[in-house]
Design a protein that fits this description.
About 65% of the residues lie in helices and about 5% in strands. The mean pLDDT is about 80.
C-alpha cells in the first residue's frame, strides 16, 4: 500500500540502503501511520493530503465536511436498500405506493393472486400513462371498494379466469357490474371524461381480452345489455336493464 501512497504523492519516496530496501525515517513512519488512520476512518485518499497538512481548526472543519458527505451517502444507500426490498415484494416494481396499498387491500379481500398480478400489470400501464393522476384515481378506487357490490364483483371476477366458457356466474358478474354502472350514472360519475386516452383504453381492453377465454363472453354479455368496453364501461343504447333481477 505504501507504494500506492508514493505514486499518488501522499508519502515521499524514501532512499534505499545498500541492499535496495527503502529506508523510512521517523517522520515518514509517523506520516504513514497518520495516512493509514485517516484512510481506515473512511477519509477518501483524495482528501487525506488536505487533512495531513491542515491546522487544528481546518482539520476539524474538514472532518465535519467528510462526515456530512458520508451521512448523505448512507441515506442514499439506505434508500436504495428500501427500494430493493420493495422490489422483492413484486407489486412495487414500477408502481407508486398508492397503487401498492390498493392492491394490498384487494388482496385482503381474498382475491385470487393470479388476478392480482393481472391488475398489477394494468396499473403499471395506467401509472405510466397518467403519473400525475394516479393517486387521485386510486383514492376513488378505495371509495368504490366501500360498496358491497364492488367487493362482490372482485370476488367473482378473480375466479373467472379459470371458469368454463358457459359458466353461469358470468351472468352474475354482468348483473353486479351493471348495477354499479347504473348507480354511477345516477351519481353523475359515468362517462368518458376520465382523462384516459382512447387509444390507451383500447390497449387495456385488448389486454383484458387476452387474459382469459371468458373475457370475450363478459364483453358480449355487456353489449347485450346495451353497454360497451371494460376499462371504460359506457352505455351505448337504452336497453331493458336486467340488473338486480
Amino acid at each position: 500500500m505504501s507504494r500506492h501512497y508514493h505514486r499518488i504523492g501522499l508519502l515521499p519516496e524514501p532512499g534505499r540502503d545498500r541492499s535496495g530496501y527503502r529506508v523510512y525515517d521517523a517522520a515518514a513512519v509517523v506520516r504513514l501511520i497518520r495516512i493509514h488512520t485517516l484512510a481506515a476512518a473512511g477519509v477518501p485518499l483524495a482528501r487525506v493530503q488536505q487533512l495531513l497538512d491542515a491546522g487544528p481548526d481546518e482539520f476539524a472543519d474538514g472532518v465535519e465536511e467528510i462526515d456530512k458527505e458520508l451521512r448523505a451517502e448512507i441515506r442514499r444507500l439506505q434508500g436504495t436498500r428500501k427500494r430493493l426490498a420493495r422490489l422483492a415484494a413484486g407489486d412495487h416494481l414500477a408502481l407508486p405506493q398508492s397503487v401498492v396499498g390498493y392492491l394490498d387491500r384487494v388482496r385482503d379481500l381474498g382475491v385470487d393472486e393470479q388476478y392480482i398480478e393481472l391488475e398489477r400489470d394494468a396499473w403499471i400501464l395506467v401509472a405510466a400513462q397518467m403519473p400525475d393522476l394516479i393517486d387521485a384515481i386510486i383514492a376513488k378506487k378505495h371509495e368504490d371498494l366501500d360498496d358491497p357490490d364492488m367487493v362482490k364483483l372482485y370476488g367473482l371476477i378473480s375466479g373467472a379466469l379459470d371458469w368454463p366458457d358457459d359458466d353461469p356466474r358470468a351472468v352474475e358478474v354482468i348483473d353486479v357490474l351493471e348495477r354499479l354502472m347504473i348507480r354511477a350514472e345516477e351519481a353523475g360519475e359515468a362517462g368518458d371524461d376520465d382523462g384516459i386516452d382512447d387509444r390507451f383504453v383500447e390497449l387495456m381492453d385488448t389486454a383484458f381480452l387476452e387474459t382469459s377465454p371468458n373475457a370475450r363472453r363478459l364483453l358480449t354479455l355487456l353489449e347485450e345489455r346495451g353497454w360497451k368496453g371494460w376499462t371504460r364501461v359506457e352505455r351505448v343504447a337504452p336497453g331493458a336493464s336486467r340488473a338486480g333481477r
